[in-house]
Amino acid sequence: MKLLLINGSPRKGGNTARMLGLLAAELEKQANSQGRALSIERCDLAGQSIAPCRGCRVCFDKGEGKCPHKDDVPAIYAKMQKADLIVAASPVYVDDVSGTMKNMIDRLAYLCHRPALAGKGAYLLTTTGGTPSPHALGTMAMALRTWGARVLGQDGIVAGALM
After folding, report:
1. What are phi and psi of 162, to 5 degrees?
2. φ/ψ (deg, to 5) at 5
3. CA-CA distance, 110 to 116, in Å (whole number)?
4. Digit-coded pLDDT (tens) for 38-80
5. Which residues pair with 127 in a beta bridge?
6. How far is residue 24 CA from its own chain's centroid?
7. DSSP for 46-86?
8. Which residues contact 126 (CB under 8 A, 6 or more apart)?
9. 19 contacts: CB under 8 Å, gap ≥ 6
10. Is 122 strand, coil or helix?
11. At what angle do helices 73-82 and 99-107 cross, to 10 degrees?
12. What are all long-range contacts of 28-34, with beta carbons under 8 Å and residues at least 24 apart?
């Protein structure tokens, strides 16, 4: 099984990164105990070049390959296509996903017109210093479901300032 962990936090080593690390370690432990092969790839959006969508509609009208932005979004999408399970994780900012995660979602808007991730599973994770945010989880769930993925589960983790 191929697992892709997408970290939507701009903070390296923050709560979201730590939770993804704990999740990856537990999944590796379980896979090893069951004799199953597990390949885990991590994609930290903070280390990627993701330009904000301009709303020019070129991706819809002429194809995503014609997008005027020449950044890392096509490579991130390629990783999503290769994965069997996508774990999308974001800190909660003003009751929603981080701007970094939202930029990625917006840039993949052309997937809303075809179920390009059909057959893939998704697990959603948010971290917050206060209370969990159903809205932030909903933002990621709506995008992944619209793109064809099946949301298998989700968790909102209250982690405090930096646990």
Report:
1. -160, 100
2. -100, 120
3. 10
4. 999 999 999 999 999 999 999 989 988 999 999 999 999 999 9
5. 91, 157
6. 14
7. GGS--PPP----HHHHT-GGG-S--SSHHHHHHHHHH-SEE
8. 89, 90, 91, 92, 97, 132, 133, 136, 137, 155, 156, 157
9. 89, 125, 127, 157, 159
10. strand
11. 80
12. 31/1
What's this model's pTM, rounded to 2 decimal places? Answer: 0.94
Instruction: Give the C-alpha distances (Å, rounded to integers) separating 100 from 10, 36, 46, 112, 121.
Output: 7, 33, 7, 19, 22
**Tokens standing for residue 110:** 């052309």
Secondary structure of 5-51 as H, E, C letters: EEECCCCCCCHHHHHHHHHHHHHHHHHHHCCCCCEEEEEEHHHCCCC
Q: What are the tens digits of pLDDT across the range 103-134?
A: 999 999 999 888 899 999 999 999 998 887 89
HSE-up of 54 (CA within 13 Å, CB side)?
10
Please tell me what DSSP assigns to residue 160.
-
The encoded tokens of residue 9 equal: 């936090």
The rounded distance, in Å, linking the Cα atoms of 140 and 133 is: 11
DSSP state of 116: T
